[in-house]
Amino acid sequence: MSHNHDRSKEVNILGEAGTKYHFEYNPKILEAFENRHQYRDYFVKFNCPEFTSLCPKTGQPDFATIYISYIPDKMMVESKSLKLYLFSFRNHGDFHEDCMNIILNDLVELMDPRYIEVWGKFTPRGGISIDPYVNYGKPNTKWEKFAESRLLQHDLYPETIDNR
Predict the structure, then answer these.
(1) N or C terminus: which one in the chain shows less Cβ crowding within 10 Å?
(2) Which of 48, 62, 99, 106 does the annotation list as catalytic?
């Protein structure tokens, strides 16, 4: 297995001058590249503290930190394309729960990962915060059972809340 072959043909956005930001939801921005370590199970975690979307009823902005963790199979998501994809929600009107499910669905379609979870931690509006958690394990594999187990246990330990 070669570890020094050129990745430049796999992704297009990374390193591109004059990055274009999409202000409307656009899953076509997402790019994937080959996982060179398919022989190993490992987690990749993205911490995205600047997510914004719009309330579909009031048009007011909603702010969140989103945690995306996945165990790749053959493909992985390129991080700059993920950043631009998440930015594309900026003027997108949807409920918190819908946004997290849409992100999960788009990443499953892009990468077909062994396992993935998306956890949104939204700042409060009107005295309440919402933290939707969604996950997925590849059907008919051990990851399907892992996803069920993780869903049932995902929030057993209270978090220390220091930002809201």
Answers:
(1) N
(2) 62
Which listed residue (55, 73, 98, 131) is catalytic?
Answer: 55
Residue with tokens 């409920």: 95
Active-site annotation holds for 62:
yes
Tokens representing 101? 């499910």
The residues, ordered by sequence, that sit 6+ positions from 79 with a Cβ below 8 Å of its Cβ are 46
The per-residue pLDDT string of the chain (164 residues; one tens digit each, 9 = 90 and over) reads: 445 555 555 556 555 666 676 667 889 999 999 999 999 999 999 999 999 998 888 888 999 999 999 999 999 999 999 999 999 998 888 889 999 999 999 999 999 999 999 999 999 988 888 999 999 999 999 999 999 999 998 887 766 766 55
Q: How far is it, in rounded angstroms, from Cα 13 to Cα 157?
A: 38
Phi, psi of 150 (to 5 degrees): -65, -35
* Full-model pTM: 0.85
Is there a contact between 32 and 111 (Cβ–Cβ < 8 Å)? Answer: yes
List Cα–Cα distances, 140 to 17, 97, 135, 137, in angstroms: 43, 26, 15, 9
